[in-house]
Predict the 3D structure of the following.
Amino acid sequence: MKKSVQNLSSGITFNEPVIRTIYGFLLGSYGPQGWWPLIELHDSNGTNPTKTGSIRGYHPGDYTYPHTENQQFEIICGALLTQNTSWQQVERALINLRQMDSLSPEGILSLDPETLKEAIKPAGYYNQKAVRLKTLAEWFLDLKSRMPAREELLSLKGVGPETADSILLYAFKQPSFVVDAYTRRVVNNLGLAEEKAKYSEIKALFEENLPEELAVYQEYHALLVEHAKRYYQKKTNYSQCPLLRLVSD
């Protein structure tokens, strides 16, 4: 059964397979999420409309961020630091760096290793992440405003597919769908992908069934996270997911 949904960024309506049906349902249920949250927006605006994670720094409906190279670099740092931890812990680490006037590639490189480790300690794995942040800082400075290729990002120590796609999508505004653990849980539960499906297969499932538009890619990933926080924290709740009704229609 095909349904129709309004394209978030262009306003056009299209007929869609289940991937687009799910997007329309999630957007209608939760509204624009305004990812990626930025520390710089904490005091000025950016209330998270759904409030299951951080409640500041979001920018719902505004897809122009990042505006500056420092904001770009903050997103890159966040994408690395959020590995194996919660966003609230990453926020604490980023705030520490900002209070030290070190939330920039030059700032990261100027910090001695022990000081950097202490600053990012809330995000966990700080010995490993401190080394990788310095690598990213050097890489970012060498980039000189050039658009990086996905393969280039994947060649960096500590940057896997999810981190690379997060950096491309949110820091460089390139439509590259992000597949995280939440996304995998949802598509597995809905029977849209095998439990052992590769990252690339789930990524292709979305990219082949969506318009290649920044707003759609950003919102879909963020909406899946929001939805999963409500229905996919415990396996016993998976059967309560309202998306199951959509895929069975």
Remarks:
- Residues 1-15 have pLDDT under 50 and may be disordered.
- The longest helix spans residues 126-143.
- The CA atoms of residues 52 and 230 lie 8 Å apart.
